[in-house]
């Protein structure tokens, strides 16, 4: 049956539990308390948590030694105890994460400010700590909706749609696995045979709501909450079945005379459960990212179905944490592209994570007219946009009729960047089915360069609306191969930048000193996207990439760690050729003609 369905994502009033719900927050009271739910249009988050993530430096040893090297010694626990005493708190080590970090349980919920102070206190007392940060709680990004539209305009309509039917002539996603890191999934007639493998990563039994902690059953038991269950003053809410809705957009069966179609209907969904009652912890989500891409997580069986695409329609506020960024880097190192929602607070997505993490494809939401949906976040971290819906047309997909516990199969219309993101994940699957050798950076670049112009206002929504047909067609196009040249000094400013005139050019460069900056200029044609990838010569070298316009305004950046490649890209959305300046900057590691080498490849 078809139905309408409302989601009122309740914001968790938990310290580093940053919430990215579809609404926005009401103003805090004069007393400084944080409101317990979001109301459209504001950008405040619920900020409490009861956990810390602490990574010790000796966790950077080989995998075979990791369990021994990162053991929680009595000395380390004693230091943690003393740090907690400074704030009247007690800490208990719970478990290790997939990157070897420890999760500590705090004896009560505290503000983000206090959790961060505790993390800094631990680091000050223990020089063997590499980093410490609050364990944030993320939330699903769906929004409330009213009556749904019976047709999937978001696939077919010329103005605001994905232009999907023409893409199906090229690819249907066969052979590609897409991990949906979300609330888990429900069995559904329109998703029969579309799921493969999966895992439940929720470690907290209260959040899990299924009677246990981590296990191999990714089924969604429902995430309904009673009033005040997640935070004081927060209203009750029904179950969202959010992950089932997202999975349907990606891979619902098609041409089966039933229900709805999926973007990549011959792909398969790997369901990975991280969100339950009141949200989910960053530490669980990070482990899920690593495992979904084929990485090892202590205590969890190996993933027999590693995914080439990860969909994360979830998020929270604040900067991208080290735990999350390391997990994303881990997934990318195995060739998995990570696609995330920009968030639904009508604010700059630079304040929303994982939307602001490096190396992800960040997706804004458009409405039926092809303009920015009123709730969608925006900003320079956004890469592309896709249909997310609004009151003039919701995104129709698979759901469950249960208001609390599971009920019958049904379909419903939702709106949000949560709904836009699986459109893009599905298109990535179409691309990979045509060319499985595509790297995460190549997928991002092609999605951006083939996106079509916005038919309505969508400022800072990326390069355009994803065009499924154009993206699928581009998948077999190889990366341009141009000349290899050497950097010419002195090029340490915009005015002395080396000119690069041919797409596919590779520059052999050198960081001659720790103060070195190398600039290169490209005259970027209208409608083209410049992608600059810098690879350091040594695993210990850390150089970063930035892109500027002729006025010196920063347009894009990539600041990955030592030994990692950095890729930054920017589109010329004007009608004329424009100068774009690529800067390679020293951050750490080797210098000089032997140890300071790097390569920089630029394509457009």
What does this structure look like?
With 604 residues, the protein is an alpha/beta fold. The protein has 2 domains: 1-434 and 445-477, Rossmann fold (3-Layer(aba) Sandwich), CATH 3.40.50.200; 484-603, Jelly Rolls (Sandwich). It has helices at residues 63-69, 74-85, 112-125, 153-156, 165-168, 205-208, 242-251, 282-292, 322-333, 417-434, 440-450, 468-474, 592-595; strands at residues 48-56, 91-96, 102-111, 129-134, 137-140, 177-182, 199-200, 268-273, 280-281, 309-312, 314-317, 337-341, 352-353, 361-366, 384-387, 395-400, 409-414, 484-486, 498-500, 505-510, 517-524, 529-536, 542-548, 554-558, 566-571, 578-588, 597-603. β16 and β17 (409-414) form a beta hairpin. The radius of gyration is 23 Å and the shape is globular. It starts with 47 loop residues before the first strand and ends with a strand. Mean pLDDT is 86; it is low at 1-45, 61-69 and 142-149.
């Amino acid at each position: 049956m078809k139905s309408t369905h409302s989601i009122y994502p309740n914001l968790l009033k938990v310290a580093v539990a940053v919430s990215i719900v579809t609404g926005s927050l009401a103003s805090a009271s004069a007393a400084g308390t944080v409101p317990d739910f979001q109301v459209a249009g504001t950008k405040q988050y619920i900020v409490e948590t009861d956990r810390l993530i602490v990574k010790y430096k000796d966790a950077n040893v080989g995998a075979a030694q990791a369990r021994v090297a990162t053991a929680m010694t009595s000395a380390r626990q004693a230091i943690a105890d003393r740090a907690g005493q400074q704030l009247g708190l007690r800490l208990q080590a719970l478990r290790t994460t997939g990157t070897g970090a420890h999760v500590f349980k705090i004896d009560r919920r505290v503000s983000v400010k206090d959790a961060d102070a505790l993390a800094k206190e631990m680091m000050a007392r223990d020089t063997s700590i590499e980093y410490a940060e609050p364990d944030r709680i993320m939330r699903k990004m769906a929004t409330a909706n009213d009556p749904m539209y019976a047709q999937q305009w978001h696939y077919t309509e010329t103005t605001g749609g994905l232009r999907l039917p023409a893409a199906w002539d090229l690819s249907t996603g066969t052979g590609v696995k897409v991990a949906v890191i979300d609330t888990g999934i429900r069995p559904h007639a329109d998703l029969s045979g579309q799921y493969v493998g999966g895992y439940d990563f929720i470690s907290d039994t209260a959040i899990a709501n299924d009677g246990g902690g981590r296990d191999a059953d990714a089924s969604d038991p429902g995430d309904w909450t009673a009033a005040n269950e997640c935070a004081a003053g927060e209203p009750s809410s029904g179950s969202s079945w959010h992950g089932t809705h997202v999975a349907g957009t990606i891979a619902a069966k098609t041409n089966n005379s039933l229900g709805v179609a999926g973007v990549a209907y011959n792909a398969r969904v790997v369901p990975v459960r991280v969100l339950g009652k009141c949200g989910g912890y960053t530490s669980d989500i990070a482990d899920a990212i690593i495992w979904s891409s084929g990485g090892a997580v202590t205590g969890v069986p190996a993933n027999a179905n590693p995914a080439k695409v990860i969909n994360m329609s979830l998020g929270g506020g604040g900067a991208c944490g080290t735990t999350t960024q390391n997990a994303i880097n881990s997934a990318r190192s195995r060739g998995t592209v990570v696609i995330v929602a920009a968030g639904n607070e009508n604010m700059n997505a630079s304040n929303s994570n994982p939307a602001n993490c490096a190396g992800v494809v960040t997706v804004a939401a458009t409405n039926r007219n092809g303009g920015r949906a009123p709730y969608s976040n925006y900003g320079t971290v956004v890469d592309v946009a896709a249909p997310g819906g609004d009151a003039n047309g919701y995104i129709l997909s698979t759901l469950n009729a249960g208001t609390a516990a599971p009920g019958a199969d049904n379909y419903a219309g939702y709106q949000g960047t949560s709904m836009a993101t699986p459109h893009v994940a599905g298109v990535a699957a179409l691309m990979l089915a045509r060319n499985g050798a595509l790297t995460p950076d190549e997928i991002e670049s092609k999605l951006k360069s083939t996106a079509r112009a916005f038919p309505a206002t969508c400022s800072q929504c990326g390069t355009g609306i994803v065009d499924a047909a154009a993206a699928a067609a581009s998948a077999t196009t190889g990366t341009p191969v141009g000349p290899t040249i050497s950097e010419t000094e002195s090029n340490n400013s915009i005015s002395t930048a080396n000119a690069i005139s041919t797409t596919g050019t590779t520059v052999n460069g050198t960081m001659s000193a720790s103060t070195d900056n190398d600039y290169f200029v490209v005259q970027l044609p209208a409608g083209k996207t410049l992608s600059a990838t810098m690879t350091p010569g040594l695993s210990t070298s850390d150089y970063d990439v930035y892109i500027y316009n002729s006025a010196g305004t920063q347009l894009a950046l990539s600041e990955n760690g030592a030994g990692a490649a950095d890729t930054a890209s920017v589109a010329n959305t004007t009608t004329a050729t424009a100068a774009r300046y690529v800067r390679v900057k020293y951050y750490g590691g080797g210098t000089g003609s032997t140890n300071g080498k790097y390569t920089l490849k630029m394509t457009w």
